[in-house]
Design goal:
Strands 1-2 form a two-stranded antiparallel sheet. A two-stranded antiparallel ribbon has the order 3-4. It is of the alpha+beta class and 108 residues long. It has three helices and four strands; from the N terminus they run βαβαββα.
Length: 108
């Protein structure tokens, strides 16, 4: 089982992103699959990964969608903020630390 941890946008935001991307060239991602990957584990034990993730700490933050880019190697268009919100950075660092302490080597 290939595991990853991600944040999913609210449904209305995902639908807006899907509509925005519709006329663009590249692979289409359905609204239900639009997400922001925080950590990719690959093949991993779900129970062990879940236990580590539950120890991660975070705080609320806003995530403005301000720019879009294209990854030519896999033909994906992605949208993101211009800079990482402090709360998101803290969540990612906490999650990655807990996963590391549990023995996971994260894929980059």
């Amino acid at each position: 089982m290939r595991l990853f941890f991600a944040l999913w946008p609210p449904e209305d935001t995902a639908l807006a992103l899907e509509r925005w991307a519709a006329p663009l060239k590249g692979r289409r991602v359905p609204a239900g699959n639009i997400h922001m990957t925080l950590a990719f584990l690959g093949e991993a034990d779900p129970a062990k990964a879940g236990a580590a993730a539950r120890r991660a700490q975070g705080m609320a933050f806003r995530l403005p969608i301000e720019e879009a880019r294209h990854w030519a190697h896999n033909d994906i268009v992605w949208a993101a903020p211009r800079s990482m919100p402090v709360g998101l950075q803290q969540l990612v660092e906490s999650l990655q630390l807990e996963l590391f302490k549990a023995g996971f080597i994260l894929e980059r």
